[in-house]
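Interim report to the steering committee. The following record documents the input for Large ribosomal subunit protein bL17c (116 residues).
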Amino acid sequence: MRHGRRVPKLNRPPDQRRALLRGLTTQLLKHGRIKTTRARASAMRKYVDKMITLAKDGSLHKRRQALGFIYEKGIVHALFAEVQDRYGERNGGYTRIIRTLPRRGDNAPMAYIVLV
């Protein structure tokens, strides 16, 4: 049973939602910290953790899966090169969400999502 396992919809159809989460994940892995809404940050956390877990395995199959999700090829290669040093001992929890002030225009709750 999947009671309580709701998918965060983010007010978008499924294809746009997937593209948004792919783009946010790519930018977070590229820059290390991004500012977005709290709902987007908490929805994105799952995908970032999955990409880092794929990189920790390091096999060719996992690399191809990551290349299929992340938009920039260079980021995938850099991720697979550095992840063992950075997250080798850590078993999950690769991101931190830091709440910040609401957005000025529409008062949306904002947050920074940071790679730990």
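Helices lie at 14-31, 38-57, 60-69, 73-87. The committee is asked to note this result when reviewing the revised timeline.
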